[in-house]
Amino acid sequence: MAGKIRNQRTLLQRNHVEPPQAAIGQMKRAIEQAERAGSLEELLGVEGNAARIYFANFAGMVKTNDEPWSGEHDQPLLSFDFTTRNRRPPRDPVNALLSLAYSVLAKDLTIVCHAVGFDPFIGYYHQPRYGRAPLALDLMEPFRPLIADSAVLSAINTRMVQPEDFVKAGDAVSLTAAGRKAFFRAYEQRMDALVTHPLFGYRVSYRRMLEVQARLLGRLVTGELKTYPVFTTR
C-alpha cells in the first residue's frame, strides 16, 4: 500500500498545475506510516487518509476548459469539474471515468493472475467479497495512479473524451458508446507506454509489467524472494 501512496504522490508532483506542498508532505508521512503499519486495520486507515488527500487535489491535474469546445446543446453539458471521489453510482464525468478505468484494470489483472497460475479470489489486503477478485485488486493498488488515473487524465486533457460523451440518469453519470470507445483508446495507449523496471533495469510496457509483478509475487510465495518488490516510479 505504501507503493500506491508513493505513486499517487509522484503523479501529483508531476501533473498538478501547482503541486500542493502541504499535501505532498502529508502523503510522504503516509508512506512512512503505511510501511510501519502493524495491522490490516491500521493500514486501511492510513490508505483511506492518503486517498482523501490525493483526491482532494485531483482536480489540479485536470487541465481543460469545457467552454471553447462545448458546442450547441439544448441544455448545459456535464463538465469535468471534480470535487471528491464518488461511486456506485459515479455522479460526475471524472468519477465515471475513474470507475471504468479501475474496473478495466481489475479485469486485466484477473486475467494475469490466471495466466501465471494464481487464484485471483484469494488475496492479502483485500478481503473476499462476491463479484470481485481480491488478489487482482491487491496487485492493482500501485498501478491505480500509474495506469488508471493517468489514462483518465490523458483522455480528458487531450480531449479524447468530451462533455458530450456522457449522459446523466438520475444521480448516475455514464459514458456513451462513443465515449467508452474513446476512453479505451486512451487506456490502451497507457498500457502500451514503456517504463523501466527498477529491479531488472529493462524497459517493458505497462501491460507486460503487470505480468512481471504477478510473477515476482509468485517468487515471494515460493520463497525465492523475501520481500515483494512493489513497482514505483519517480
Can you describe what's shown?
The protein contains eight helices and four strands, in the order H-H-H-H-H-H-E-E-H-E-E-H. With 234 residues, it is mainly alpha-helical. The strands form two sheets. Strands 1-2 form a two-stranded antiparallel ribbon. The protein has a two-stranded antiparallel sheet with strand order 3-4. The protein is globular and about 55 Å long. Residues 68-74 have low confidence and may be disordered.
Multimeric organization: single chain
Task: Assign an overall shape.
Answer: globular
Could you give the count of β-strands? 4
Our measurement of the CA-to-CA distance between the termini, rounded to an integer number of angstroms, reads 16 Å
How would you spell out the order of helices and strands? Answer: HHHHHHEEHEEH
Helix content: 40-55%
**Low-confidence region ranges:** 68-74
Number of helices: 8
% residues in beta strands: 5-15%
Radius of gyration equals 18 Å
Name the average pLDDT: 90
Spatial strand arrangement across the major sheet = 1-2
Structural class: mainly alpha
The major pleated sheet works out as: 2 strands, antiparallel
Please outline the helices and strands.
Layout: H1 2-15, H2 21-36, H3 40-56, H4 93-116, H5 134-140, H6 143-157, E1 166-169, E2 172-175, H7 177-192, E3 194-196, E4 203-205, H8 206-221
Helix pairs in contact: 1-2, 1-3, 1-6, 2-3, 4-5, 4-6, 4-8, 6-7
